[in-house]
Amino acid sequence: MAQGGWISRWPVLRQLRGEDGRSRAARSARTDALRPRTEQADSVARSVCPYCAVGCGQLIYVKDGRVTQIEGDPDSPVSRGRLCPKGAASKQLVTHPGRQKHVLYRRPHGTEWEALDLDTAMDMIAERVLRTRRQTWQQEHEGKTVRRTMGIASLGGATLDNEENYLMKKLYTALGAIQVENQARI
What does the record list as coiled-coil region(s) (predicted)? Predict the structure, then answer.
């Protein structure tokens, strides 16, 4: 083998000499033909990752009314362009073909799901919340004024941001519920 033989072809030495890495040694015609998904976007919207209360910034790239890519926002003071694995995969929330786009309801003792319009589902929820509050209301407990219901509780999830958690706490407190917790804190 010629002088320098295998050592001169060693990838670390080629990279140190500038002959490899992102230069011609790592390129191909196929690589050169590739274009970023963000290049053809019609618009870019700034958003916040929905997975936890950290509030990592996201850039949402849209082409022809469809989300084509979601990336970390480098201008975000919270995440500085970085996303955790869940945040990096959040495009699936809006583009996955299995995403539910209807309210599904299964009647008591039923075996099948049925689609409901949003107004009907919201009316059903409101009626049940008000009925439960009315049936479980405690004005007093052991001689003390408590004004509460033990029939309503909330366990929030990590997909809620700080603002949503704040509003949930206000809603449940106004209803008289005292069992309000969030799984992100547990």
Answer: none
Domains belonging to the chain, first-starting first, are 1-34 (no CATH), 43-95 (3.30.200.210), 103-182 (no CATH)
Q: How far is CA 162 from the centre of its chain?
A: 13
Q: Quick one: DSSP state of residue 146?
A: E
Question: For residue 64, what are the contacts with CB-CB under 8 A and spacing of at least 6?
Answer: 42
Beta strand spans in 22-143 (E): 43-48, 57-63, 66-72, 103-105, 114-116, 137-141
What's the whole-model pTM score? 0.57
Each residue of 170-182: pLDDT tens digit?
999 999 999 998 8
The pLDDT, as a whole number, for residue 7 is 73
Laid out side by side, the sheet with 177-182 consists of: 137-141, 144-156, 177-182
